Amino acid sequence: MAANAPALTFFALFLPFLASVLAPVLTRLLGDRAAFVLALAPALAFAHFCTFLPEIAAGEVVTGGYAWAPSFNLSFSWFLDGLSLTFALLITGIGALIVVYSGGYMKGHEGQGRFMAFILAFMGAMLGLVVSDSFLMLFVYWELTSITSFLLIGFDHEREAARRAALQALVVTGGGGLCLLAGLVFLWNITGVTQLSLLVHLGDGLRQSPFYLATLLLVLAGAFTKSAQFPFHFWLPNAMEAPTPVSAYLHSATMVKAGVYLLMRLNPVMGDTPAWVILLPFFGGITLIAGTFLAVRQTDLKLMLAYTTMASLGLLVMLTGFGSAHAVEAAVLYLVAHSLFKGALFMVAGTVDHEAGTRDVTKLGGLRAAMPVTFGAALLAALSMGGLPLFFGFLAKEEIYAALAAGNPRAVFFTGLAVIGNALMFAIAFAVALKPFLGPHVETPKHAHEGPMTLWLGPVVLSVLGLAAALFSGVAHRYISSPMASAITDEKIVIDISTVPHLGLPLLLSVITVLLGALAFWRLTDLRAFMVRAVESLGPGPDRGFDHVVSGLVRLSAAVTRFVQPGRLEIYITATFILLAVTLLVPPFVFGELPVMPAWPEQLLVQEAAFFAIAVIGLFAVLRAKDRLTAIVSLGIQGFAVAVIFLLFGAPDLSFTQFMVETLSVVILALVMTRLRLTPRDHRPLGQSLFDGMVAVACGLGFTLLLLKSTQAPFDTVLTDFFNTYSKTVAHGANVVNVIIVDFRGTDTLGEIAVVMVTALAVLALIRVRAGKRAGSGEGR
Amino acid sequence: MEALFSILIGLFFAGAIYLILSKSTVRILLGVVLLGNAVNLLLFTAGRLTREVPPIIPAGMDVLLPGAANPLPQALILTAIVISFSFFAFLLVLTYRAYQELGTDDTDEMRLAEPRQEPLPPLGY
Amino acid sequence: MNTLILRTVAPSLTALMLLFSVFVLLRGHNEPGGGFIGGLIAASALAIYGIAFGVPSVRRAIRFHPMAIAGFGLLLATLSGALSIFFGVPFMTGLWVYPVIFDVELPLSTVMSFDIGVYLVVVGAITSIALALEQEPGSDVEGED
Question: What parts of the sequence cross the membrane (chain C) (predicted)?
């Protein structure tokens, strides 16, 4: 296996993209059954990544990749340790279930193929993100997840709310991505490496760097926007505009954890500094509390789940920020548990919505008889989310309290936050899992009955896994949790917490959490009313602010465009030439590079002087021409004078060409000008003429000085000597000019004659446009 | 000699730019022709000037006579002359057609691409 | 400009100029001349013919659409450069053969065919522009297809 493993891994990484390309075709051929075929892609990738489990559990790291631009240190390289492997398994495993679920959920939807393509593309991007080793790859995949998320949120693009949510998510997470890019550039500049695997041991230098704080803030901007941390949280609830499989997959199980992933990945390198241990728990804690408070307010199943997702992400960031071994263990357990139960609950919410026609919790009830399997899955997931014994969520919560509950005031504070947050999440978990199913039957828009297998398979598998992982915690810890925690802390960690309760402070806190949660669940309606009033009293949030920012940006852009592009050609041209004059004139004066004054008089022969004079006269005649004929004739005069000057100074080829061109120019100019009832008279007012004249003279002076200076410098004859030496001996031509054109620089000439040809085509096209219009409807203006 | 050429070229540039700064498309066209000549002369002079000896290797010799003109700028200018001619032809036809379609040769009146009162782009999503 | 003198002189003038253009083209490698100049002379010749006898007669006289001539020239120039592929040398390397015909050694080369390509492009493109402009406004653009 070792020999072909890199190729296989490479293939596994691209399998989702391949499936994405095939999805529309397969869906057209097979209808909704295509989902089963497409689910093979993530399933195979999942199987492939499973083969790494023993190696990773033994503490090894698997790397691989292909060099791309070695001179720039750029490669397509991946890196599997406990952290990335766990993520890869979550992404592919849940991904396979989600694809199957989507097949049922989107059944009959005309955009099913497109949807499958997007979601598989996202899967490929997310998978690439977590296994990336090189910074560049990380960044590209990071932004790719933002883009695919944009496409998925805006999937139902005919609704304005979906478009707004999609744009908002893209702006927030994409903008964060740009900050991350800057942060990565900082990391690269400080440490000199561009690979995450090499970064691990350079932490000390990085932490002492004066740019540490700037780097940290940039990285945090990326991570916080992606993981919906306060104050960038507002895009996540809006992202619920997406179809439910997307919410289950991107906006709870995988993509929003990318920020947490990044923080965990950088924990050994950037963690354990004052800024880290203050900023992360602070923002994480706020997000946790804000998320649960906002969640309680909601009646929409998906929105309730969305806000608790935000809260859970806050909890994860908070734990990562603590950075102690216990906190990391807790984060690991909670992350896995959350992906399982939240994915399941979202799918349940989707199934209820799909079957009953509404997901407003106040309009649902008594579905247990109609949808027993879904109810069972929901109940199991809620038990895990509530953190009750026998479930993986319980292990996570025990570990959280064990990590937080130390004696100092800071710990007490954060423990308090965690208890409140967990209690409210408990209440919401059961509100989502119980309210729609228990109680008297409520009439729903659609007559509810159990969904097809595709709709309940995912929730059942995930919620059962949440139970199994806790029951067989030894296996789960050995292969998943312990390697992941070790990767995050960069030291060997063995997690051994099991579902058997240990007496002690954590258990007491758990009991308090459950009691508080049960109380909140009991009085949920009152609590909701209170929260609605409380949030309203706070005034508009960042969500409204986003609208103002966007409309402000549009107005600003319009104003800037109006300013720099007023639509008057002469302004553009004047600006160009003023800049040209400045470029030509300022450097010589500033740096004292003016040419020395030439010695007068120069030896100019009489005929040379005569043609100089003719050229100048022709030039002025063009400037002063009042009618067409004068302009044409004087243009011809200066052109012929230039041709003679070429002849006098040893350039017969140029001279002939110029003669022919001038002749043809005069002919076609005459042809056209006789039809144009126009005079080349100048309409400029005097002031304008003077100003334009000044600009023109300044440019002319600039060119004169430039040429004087450059001809006074010694002449480099390397090229001339080359052509002189080889023209006859190698290229067999005596006319060196012609040899250069057709032989030495033949490729240039080929391009140039192509330009001549294209110009002729353009002229023909311009003339034909008229012909077409005349023959057509005659509506031309 | 180069000094005189420099001054002549400066005059050509100034004249060309003065014409191009105008609003009338016909004058801009004339300016572009002059600008082409100015640039050609600039290249020619920058390659240094020699009188009357063309860069053609005499029969029975393998290299140019000493004092022959520099062939390289000539090769550059030769193609440039032909290209500027085709460019000139294109601009001429463009001027002509624009006048036919829009009825003006004043660039300020040609506002199809950038209308005077452009409305704000839509502010929704 | 459709005068008797011009109409009388034009055919012979055009013929002479075309002949001269070929002469200038072929001697270009060793004497002043070459594809660009030759092409311009030939284009002027056709323009004069067009002024004297009208555009349709020029189109009849040259048989092919001028852009077709230009296109053929561009193809010829490209092929001259690409021929070097078969000899394993870089693009645009000049290749020479010296067949002896009637005891005269005739140097032929891809460089020459390239220059002929340049000539044809210039003749075709410039003639096409000139004819398009000479055409009376409003007259049909027949014969351009």
Answer: 12-29, 35-55, 67-96, 116-133
**Distances from the Cα of A70 to the Cα of A66, A73, A74, A194, A300, angstroms:** 10, 5, 6, 12, 52
Report residue B112 as tokens.
């199809």
Under an 8 A CB cutoff, do C129 and B82 touch? no
Q: Are residues A510 and A535 in the same domain?
A: no
Phi, psi of B106 (to 5 degrees): -95, 120
Q: Measuring CA to CA, which residue among A719, A750, A724, A753 is closest to residue A739?
A: A724
Burial call A696-724: b when 16+ CB within 10 Å, e when fewer: bbbbbbbbbbbbbeebeeeeeeeebeebb
Check whether residue A688 and residue A617 sit in a common domain: no
Q: Would residue B38 count as lying in a domain?
A: yes
Domain span at residue A556 reads 528-565
CA distance B119 to chain C (A): 38
What is the tens place of the pLDDT at every residue in A241-288?
889 999 999 888 888 999 999 999 999 888 888 899 899 999 999 999
Q: How many Cα atoms occupy the beta-carbon half-sphere of A644 within 13 Å? A: 15
Burial of A367 (0-12, 13-18, 19+ CB in 10 A): buried
Residues of chain C with pLDDT under 50: 138-145
Chain B: partners with 3+ C-beta pairs within 8 Å: A, C
Q: Is B77 contained in some domain?
A: yes
Q: Is residue B124 part of a domain?
A: no
Which structural domain, as residue segments, surrounds residue B92? 2-53+68-103
Total structural domains within chain B: 1
The pair phi, psi for residue A79, each rounded to 5°, is -160, 115
Nearest of C44, B21, C5 to residue A666 by alpha carbon: C44
Residue A194: Cβ within 10 Å count: 22
Name the domain count of chain A. Answer: 4
Measure CA of the first residue to CA of the last residue in chain A; give whole Å: 73
The per-residue pLDDT for range B28-59, each reduced to its tens digit, is: 999 999 999 999 999 999 988 888 788 888 88
Residue A689 domain flag? yes
The CB-side HSE value for A686 (13 A sphere, CA atoms) comes to 0
Cβ-Cβ contacts under 8 Å between B and C: the total is 22
Element at A31 (helix H, strand E):
none
Q: Are A435 and A521 in contact (CB under 8 A)?
A: no
Among C residues 65-94, those touching chain A with beta carbons less than 8 Å apart:
66-67, 70-71, 73-74, 77-78, 81, 91-92, 94
Quick check: is A238 in a domain? no
Q: Do residues A241 and A165 make contact, with C-beta atoms less than 8 angstroms apart?
A: yes
ipTM metric? 0.92
Q: Are A244 and A347 in contact (CB under 8 A)?
A: yes
- Closest listed residue to residue A753, CA positions, set B93, C97, C64, B85: B85
Please list every residue in chain C whose beta carbon sits closer than 8 Å to the beta carbon of residue A667. Answer: 44, 47, 51, 130
What residues does each domain of chain C span?
A: 4-134
Regarding whether A550 and A648 lie in a shared domain, the answer is no
Residue A684 has pLDDT above 60, yes or no: yes
Count other Cβ atoms within 10 Å, centred on residue A651. 30
Domain end call among A677, A700, A728:
A677
In chain A, which residues have their Cβ closer than 8 Å to the Cβ of C133?
668, 671-672
Residue that is written with structure tokens 């001269």 in the block: C20
Residues A747-768, buried b or exposed e (16+ Cβ, 10 A)? Answer: eebbebbebbbebbbbbbebbe
The single residue listed with the structure tokens 């450097």 is A587
Answer yes or no: do A518 and A646 share one domain: no
- Report the candidate in C42, C52, C51 with the shortest Cα–Cα distance to residue C17: C42
- B74 falls within a domain: yes
Total length of chain B: 125
pLDDT tens-digit series, residues A386-442: 888 888 888 888 888 888 876 677 888 888 889 999 999 999 998 888 888 888 888
